[in-house]
Amino acid sequence: MNKPLDSARGRPLSLRVARRIVALTSVVVPRAERAEWRREWEAELEHRWAMTRRRPTDWRSGMDLIRRASGAFPDAAWLRRQFTADADLVHDLRHTVRLALKTPGPTAIALLVFAVGIGATTAIASLADTLLVRPLPLSDADRIVTIWERNTATGIGHADVAPGNAIDWVGRSRSFQAIAAVEPWSVDYTGGDEPEVLRAGRVSERFFDVLGVRMFHGRAFLPQEYVRGNDRVVILGHGVWETRFGGDPALVGRAIQLGDEPYTVVGILPPDIELRLLGGPERVLWLPKYFEEYEPKIRTSGYWNVIARLSPGVTLEQARAEMDGLSRQLATELPRSNTNTVAEVITLRDHLAGSLHALVPLLAGAAVFLLIVACANVANILIARGALRGRELAVRQALGAGRGRVVRQLLTETLLLAAIGGGLGLFVARWALDLIARLRPVDVARVDSIPLDVRSALMAFGLTIAASVVAGLAPALQLSRPAAATALHEGQSGGPRRGVRGALVVVEVALALLLVVGAGLLLRSFALIQKVDPGFQRDHVRALQVFAYDRRNEKPEGRALFVQRVLENMRSLPGISAAGVVSAMPFIEANMNIQAIVEIVGRPPAPPGDDSRIFLNVAAGDYFQAMGISLLRGRLLNERDIAGSPAVVLISRTAARTHWPGADPIGSRLKFRYHGRPFEAEVVGIVGDARHDALDQPARAELYLPHAQAPTGAVTFVVRSREGSPVTMMDLKKQIWAQDPLEPLYRTATLDELVDRTLVGRRFSLVLLAGFAAAALLLASAGLYGVLSSSTSHRTREFGVRIALGAGRREIVGLVIREGLLLAAIGLVIGLGGAVWLTKFLRSLLFGVTPTDPVTFSAVAAGILVIALVSCYLPARRAVKVDPLIALRAE
After folding, report:
1. N or C: which end of the chain has fewer CB within 10 A?
2. In Å, how far are 23, 211, 547, 566, 707 from 736, measured between CA atoms?
3. pLDDT of 500
4. Which helix (H) or strand (E) holds 653?
């Protein structure tokens, strides 16, 4: 008994297609006649299927069913064409699967190449989408900007803002709907296993209005809470609310203990507002900021971050023009402090992208180059595989298949390979994005967990289509060209033209060289910057940063005594050779970068525009011995430099060179202001320079005060241990907690870790570009090997004849190698020409080398030639092993 017609199981493809046509065309039949019309056609189709059921794969019977169904209406010709194409597509897909199973090696290589190319490009596209395109989780975020300071004399920009300048911007600018200031802050938290520091931000009024943020729970700060005494309120980030306080909504309105003070929780931020608005580490708490009376006077030291929202109708260019004008006004009014200071307006999106904002386009270009190399490699694989299908393609053409039909079949094969490779590429993209998150520079936000969502899938789909067309078009056109009679007469493929495959290899070599040159320049820069003398010795030094203010009631005597006792305890540990403290530790994130205008007693004040600012630092104990900073002249600070004794200072070599050119500064007296109070001190020594922010930045002019004469709570304990010392970081922490069990440590690290942190950005760009370069070079060498190997196999008869006529091994090897090296040389020439032009975009990432560094270019060219030589030699060895008798007999 036959199964009912509505069961498709067991029916051939042609019957199912015909039934789809009947279902579609029935909609144009009048409703009253539709049921009867469908019954008649289904009965006819069932009858025809029953007549042909003994040969269900008969293509002509199936096509006749389709033609009769689609020909029921004169206007249904398009349906006939559509479903004929569907049947052809299904046939091509089945044929592709069978072919892939017959040639598993080339298929696996093609899938792997597609997966790497599409996956890497999808990862970079997702990175670019997150940083440059995807909307920020803020209201009208494109209107939000950050404002920084730039020193026109040194060229250093993106610097924190001096409070006095920020206050003037708020009062004078008209381009912004609101301007708010953020002061990086921290609070002590003792609710965990050990005391810790929670990073916070003290924000001025309208900060949350600028961001356009609505609280997840609770409310924002009220105007009256920006007043001293009313400021014991806090807004928690969503993450810290969940991890440390259990995500309890009832926490709003209750008090939590921060330091020695209770703070009332008034709001919880939404989960998607965990942004690094301040740069550096995530801020997890937000406190109201009230203005201190001395802050409007501070012009030379910047420690505020400023964020603003553009007024309606005001463009970014207009806001920048207004801020340039305000900077000129302040420079005229305050020439000593503001002559070289201008405002720098940067969009919030660009600020959050950090150093990756300029790097992403370069990485995107590298990813596209790699994808093109991958497509060229797959094209070569398909041409090589197609060469073995010459008889099949010739038979198809002989039986009437047009060139377009053959091209469509070959493109279908490539599309299926690209689709599977693209699916595998999503796993490669996920791995690459996880690597990016681990290696990312510290100034970049929003890359900790870049999603692979629908947007990423759509990008991968678009890349898959593009890759299939790029990789499949050349093989399709090439393999569909030979005449059928010729191929049948030869009894084999005859071998495809080597010109197309050679051109693809040239493209691969040229693009690989571009990527390798870029990676080589970054590698040279990285090696040179690591050789820079930082001015101190990095090995066996640990740093422990504390902000020891609150529990000593901010009394100078208590802070000085605390530092003295901790240093004594640390020196008593076994294996400790030196211990000291400093207020501005080189390479640490939360540095106390205080500047002052220095006046040398007995000299006239520096004229306006002559920057006489100097960085103030506070040191005590054996800081210079612990850091390995050399004493150049005079003496170091010692235990006799205490409160009540004559004030003394040390200066750095750069300070001596810039402020006393050609003169001896020892014995000179200086006047300056420190924390709002005047200082006059004698220069007693000159010490070496120590770079502070990065190895590629010059040393700054510094002045060191004794901690006992300028006791600050912001200090970093610096401890040098002897090699093999058993002392651990926990041992050093315990010496601090022995004096104050509740003192949290803001940062602990070795000096090596601090310096390496500043190289993360360079290491990030180097690793990614080197990865692209290595993959492209591997594909290019594989492509060259594949072309020569295929060429060698198709020239078996030629080599047999040559050997039979007396050609030696060297002649045969040289013949093959010359062919391969010619392709590599053409690719090198093209690639070097492109590299000379493209490497100029790497200029901002280089250190100590030029974009056209001849050493790098020469080394890369020589290396690629060596790799090409190896790729050529392997097929050449196989060529000389040909037995002429066997080769001639086979032909």
Report:
1. N
2. 83, 39, 12, 6, 17
3. 75
4. helix 653-659
**What are the tens digits of pLDDT across the range 843-879?**
888 888 999 999 999 999 998 888 888 887 777 776 6
Q: And the tokens for 130?
A: 């997150």
- CA distances to 147, 148, 156, 331, 453 from 324, rounded to whole Å, are 12, 12, 16, 11, 42
Q: How far is Cα 422 from Cα 378, in angstroms, rounded to an integer?
A: 13
Which one, of 338, 394, 380, lies nearest residue 505 by Cα? 380
* Cβ neighbours for 140, distance < 8 A, ≥ 6 positions apart: 212, 309
Extract the tokens encoding 745.
């440590």
Choose among 599, 605, 698: nearest CA to 654. Answer: 698
The H or E element that residue 226 is part of is none
**Crossing angle of helices 403-439 and 77-102, rounded to 10°:** 60
Orientation angle between helical segments 316-333 and 163-172, nearest 10 degrees: 120
Q: Nearest-5° angle of CA 254, CA 256, CA 259? A: 155
Q: Is 287 helix (H, G, I), strand (E, B) or coil?
A: strand
Average pLDDT, the chain: 80
- Please check the confidence at residue 612 and state whether its pLDDT lies above 70: no
The DSSP element (H or E) to which 184 belongs, if any, is: strand 176-189
CA distance 872 to 361: 35
Evaluate whether 287 touches 203 at the Cβ level (below 8 Å). Answer: yes
Q: Phi and psi (nearest 5°) for 13? A: -60, -40
449 token code pair: 């967990």
Beta bridge partners of 406: none
- Nearest to 362, CA basis, from 882, 841, 846: 841
Say how far apart CA 374 and CA 464 lie, in whole Å. Answer: 12
Do 126 and 452 form a contact (C-beta atoms < 8 A)? Answer: yes
Does the pTM surpass 0.90? The reply is no
Q: What is the pLDDT of residues 647-699, one digit of tens each?
A: 999 999 999 998 898 889 999 999 988 877 888 999 999 999 999 888 888 88
Among residues of the chain, what percentage have pLDDT more than 70?
A: 76
**Which residue, 579, 544, 592, 581, is CA-closest to 737?**
544
CA-closest candidate to residue 649, choices 667, 630, 664? 667
Q: Which helix (H) or strand (E) holds 612?
A: none
Asked whether the beta carbons of 672 and 614 are under 8 A apart, the reply is yes
Gap between the Cα atoms of 354 and 131, Å rounded: 9
Give the DSSP letter string of 393-436.
HHHHHHTT--HHHHHHHHHHHHHHHHHHHHHHHHHHHHHHHHHH
Q: Say how far apart CA 679 and CA 151 lie, in whole Å.
A: 26
Which one-letter DSSP state was computed for residue 724?
Answer: T
Burial of 472 (0-12, 13-18, 19+ CB in 10 A): buried
Q: What is the biggest distance separating any 2 CA atoms in the chain, rounded to whole angstroms?
A: 118
Q: Taking the mean position of all CA atoms in its chain, how far away is CA 252?
A: 37
Nearest CA-CA partner of 186 in 748, 754, 746, 749: 746
In the predicted model, is pLDDT for residue 882 greater than 70? no
- Look at residue 488 in the predicted model and tell me its pLDDT: 41
Sign of the torsion angle spanned by Cα atoms 680, 683, 689, 690: negative
Angle at 186 between CA 183 and CA 189, to 5 degrees: 155
Nearest to 659 by CA among 692, 625, 700: 700
pLDDT in tens, 181-226: 998 888 887 666 677 788 888 999 999 999 888 899 999 999 999 9
* Cα(206)–Cα(180) distance, integer angstroms: 6
Q: Please give the C-alpha separations between residue 588 and each of 85, 532, 544, 619, 693, in angstroms, as whole numbers.
A: 66, 18, 10, 15, 8
Distance CA 586, CA 535 (A): 10
* C-alpha distance across the termini of the chain, in Å: 58
- Average confidence (pLDDT) over 120-138: 87
Greatest mean pLDDT among 15-24, 434-443, 527-536, 779-788 lies in 527-536
Q: How confident is the model at residue 414 (pLDDT cuts 50, 70, 90)?
A: confident
The dihedrals phi and psi of 836, each to the nearest 5 degrees, come to -60, -35
